[in-house]
Design a protein that fits this description.
Helix content is about 50%, strand content about 15%. The protein is of the alpha/beta class. The structure holds guanosine-5'-diphosphate. Guanosine-5'-diphosphate (GDP) binds next to helix 6.
Amino acid sequence: MNGGARPWFARLRESLTRTRDTLALQLETVTGRALDDAVLAELEETLILADAGAPAAAAVIDRLRTERGLRTPADVRAALARILREMLGPPVPMRVDPPPAVILVLGVNGTGKTTTIAKLAARLRADGRTVMLAAADTFRAAAIEQLAVWAQRLGVDLVRHQPGGDPGAVVFDALTAMRARSIDVLIVDTAGRLHTKVNLMEELRKLNRIIAREAPPSMERLLVLDASTGQNAIAQARLFHEAVEVTGLVLTKLDGTAKGGVLFAIAREVELPVKFVGTGEGLDDLASFDPEEFVEALLPG
Ligand code: GDP
């Protein structure tokens, strides 16, 4: 597949440079000799260093070991590409049809939640949809302000209350406003203060119930994870999923991290579909996750 024509693919490739370079070195060592245990061990180590996690790395290597007739770097690359693609599974797009749709955006503070909401809003707008934001992280005044700045810049409506207000009331008002103004997609920002874990999960469950009562024809519960936190991201995915049944993941900050392999750990250990990847701080730096393109960007050549 040639994804090179798309600018975001170049950015994704760029962001995976460090992992790809290490893999390239190992694949070169295959030249002239069979794929022996030493090479397999090096490949496994590279996957672990890229934060694929030991179980996923071992699974890839076990599969590779059963392949026959791998004598050149190109052979190994092709086999590796196939195995990695299969591990990631098929692409799962975000569901916003039929409208109206509600996207509950979850995640620990600092993972890139607000930025992701802005990117999603810009994308949906460009797609011709009407978008509204709800500032349900009432705990942080700065979060409300940040969302207000994005809403104004993007020209989308924002429902907000005073800092310290009830997040449930914000969501309730936003749902009412959404109906009144025939908005296609409502994106809800939520709190992410993990140090009050029990309260936070209770609050998120409550928001989820308020939205579910409204029964929007389409709903997503997207969890934003910071790729550069590696294995921590997996623990977060389990925690949030247990609370509100996450429907998809957004993996941010794939740029500038050597830990792109965390996607394989997620596929193996959490089994939630990655729907988007963030590859920068700009509004365009969000790509629908396509496993095939990701593997192409990860592997050398
Ligand atoms: P929140 O606390 O989860 O709402 O996080 P923010 O959206 O405020 O993001 C925290 C920081 O991460 C900001 O400086 C963002 O610009 C940055 N950020 C968010 N997404 C990405 C990304 O995909 N790549 C990079 N490099 N930075 C990002």
